[in-house]
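In the present case, backbone shapes were mapped to integers, as reproduced here:
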Amino acid sequence: MLDSILKSIVTDNVLHAKWLNTLSYMENAGAKKISASEHKEHVNLIILKHAAEEHRHAYYLKKQISKLSDELCKTYTNGELLSPHYTKYYLHALDIAVCRYLKANFNLSGYELKFAAYLFVTYAIEVRADELYPVYQAILDEAKSKVNVKSIILEEEGHLEEMINQLIGFSDDWENHAAEVIKIEKALFDNWVGALNQELAVSA
């Protein structure tokens, strides 16, 4: 379904600008979540790098909109996003659900819970990004679009590797817990894609 949704989006400049803006919003929300998970004093280099790169992705995606139009999507208001309610709910809902899961399975609280949630939520998001961005790039190539997300694809691959290394240090059984988190993320992502599909059907 995502493939056909993206093909429809890329053929329409207004929809495409909103799509880029939606991705930018999500990258920016991710960067803010990473920063919010930081300890007041014990901040490692990887967390700073991730927050900086997610902010850069948000900026980069927003800049790509100018390749389609200089007039579109100046803000993150609902009218300039695709499926805004699902878009704004997705990461927040994932964070809450993962925190509940980690509390139940690791009995964590405070900063320890925040940091563990950062590890697992970021892992799930990177797995998703590793799937989503290459599909989008292939459709951009096919459409001979001026827009491209190749630099993001390379950085997201590096992020995933870094998250796995940190998760190995967090728990010997990280893969089983990560698989449960992936299930939570998939349900939320599928809802989001369903909402996108419905929105495009209405606007068609």
In short: The helical segments are 2-10, 13-36, 45-64, 84-106, 110-142, 150-170, 174-203. The mean pLDDT is 94. Residues 110-142 form the longest helix (33 residues).
